[in-house]
Write a structure and sequence with these properties.
The protein is α/β, with parallel strands linked by helices. It folds into two domains: about 130 residues, Rossmann fold (3-Layer(aba) Sandwich), CATH 3.40.50.2300; about 130 residues, Response regulator (Rossmann fold, 3-Layer(aba) Sandwich). It has a six-stranded parallel beta sheet, with helices on both faces. Helix 4 links the parallel strand 3 and strand 4. The radius of gyration is 36 Å and the shape is elongated.
């Protein structure tokens, strides 16, 4: 007898229980995939934002140009060091150009700074000739200019930072009159003709001499670069023509040091007073050692810091005074020590 297979009865409840379980597993699978994709998208978005922020930060980095007349001169080196230190402290990129005393070279350097996209320029003109040309070009490009030490009358910077050389030279002139007893034969070694410091020092010293008629100016000659070798050559020539000179005023310490060397070589038989101006490192040490009788110490460190801060203010659209003149300090053997230890 053939055995008939018993039909398999599937419980409806089992079907109902089994179907939702399969659906739940699929739902969990797809949900996990969706979450993974969401996390991936969010991670990529965050990475994109980070990259964009980094690129934006680099693109927005403030770059300032520093066009220096001649870094062979300690005075300008002092200013450059101060500007550089302040730039690092403020997170500013500084691009330095040294004209080495050549005005034509500096015009090209200023144009290069503008091409490189600097946001402002700190400008120490190399001379009176064409000093205003780069300023005019910068203003056309809407690049603010901070002039330091020298300012072109036909095209001044947005602000001008310098020693009040008129007042300082008058102070020095009064001191010369006092220590010489108001009687002397004076020789003046001038700076570069037509530059702001030369004109201002001439004005202030001349005003002081007007009140000291016993001091006679017997020789006066300009230099081209304010350098020590020029001072030596000019002073030598003056001593040969006027051996009775008993006061030299070098309108820069380098010129005064050149005159001191000329006096030593000439072996004159009388006291010759020698005065400088700037308060650079060599000049201060010469005052300490008695080679120079006095100088006027300029606040080069303060001027450099002020120049960088002024450039940032101009970039930010702030209005600054047309001139920011600084006081110089009459420096003799009695007070020179602190200036050698730490330049103001």
């Amino acid at each position: 007898m053939t055995k008939t297979a018993t039909p398999r009865v599937v419980c409806p409840q089992f079907i109902l229980r089994k179907q939702p379980l399969k659906t739940n597993l699929l739902t969990i699978h797809y949900t996990n995939m969706l979450l993974q994709n969401t996390y991936f998208i969010r991670a990529m978005a965050a990475l994109s934002l980070f990259s964009a922020a980094s690129l934006s930060s680099k693109a927005e980095e403030t770059t300032i140009g520093l066009a220096v007349a001649n870094l062979q001169a300690d005075f300008f080196n002092q200013i450059k060091q101060s500007v550089d230190a302040e730039a690092k402290a403020k997170g500013v990129k500084l691009v330095v150009a040294d004209a080495k005393g050549d005005a034509a070279t500096q015009v090209d350097q200023m144009q290069d700074l503008m091409t490189r996209g600097v946001k402002a320029i700190i400008y120490i003109p190399a001379g009176a000739t064409a000093a205003g040309v780069p300023v005019k070009a910068a203003k056309k490009a809407n690049i603010p200019v901070v002039n330091v030490d020298r300012n072109a009358p036909d095209a001044p910077g947005d602000t001008f930072i310098a020693t009040d050389s008129v007042s300082a030279a008058r102070t020095l002139g009064d001191y010369v009159c006092k220590v010489t007893g108001g009687k002397a034969n004076l020789a003046i070694l001038q700076g570069q003709e037509g530059t702001t410091p030369e004109m201002d020092r001439d004005k202030g010293f001349t005003a002081a001499m007007a009140n000291c008629p016993g001091i006679k100016v017997v020789a006066k000659q300009p230099s081209k670069m304010w350098m020590q070798d020029e001072g030596f050559a000019i002073a030598q020539d003056m001593l040969q023509r006027y051996p009775n000179i008993d006061v030299f005023f070098g309108r820069a310490d380098a010129l005064a040091l050149g005159a001191a060397h000329a006096v030593k070589v000439a072996n004159v038989g009388h006291k010759v007073w020698i005065f400088g101006f700037d308060g650079d490192v060599a000049g201060l040490k010469a005052v300490r050692d008695g080679t120079l009788d006095a100088t006027m110490t300029q606040k080069t460190q303060g001027m450099g810091k002020l120049a960088l801060d002024s450039a940032l203010d101009l970039i930010a659209g702030k209005q600054l005074p047309r001139e920011q003149l600084q006081e110089a300090v009459l420096t003799t053997k009695e007070n020179v020590g602190p200036f050698i230890d730490k330049h103001p």
